[in-house]
Amino acid sequence: MTPTPRTPSPRTRALRRRGTWSASQRSSGVAIDLGSARTRAWMPDHGLILDDPTIASSGAAGGSRPVNRGVVVDPTGAACVLERLLGRRAGLGHYSLVVLTTPVLSADQHISVARTALEVLDARVVLTIDSVKAAALGAGAGMARPLLVLDIGAGLTEVALLVDGVVMCAQRLDVGTSDLGATTTVAELVESIVTVVTDLLRLDCAAMVVDALDRGPLLTGGGALRPEITYRLAKLLGAPVRPAPAPQSAAVRGAGLAMVAADHHPSIRTEQSVRSHHP
Question: What pTM was computed for the model?
Answer without folding.
Answer: 0.83
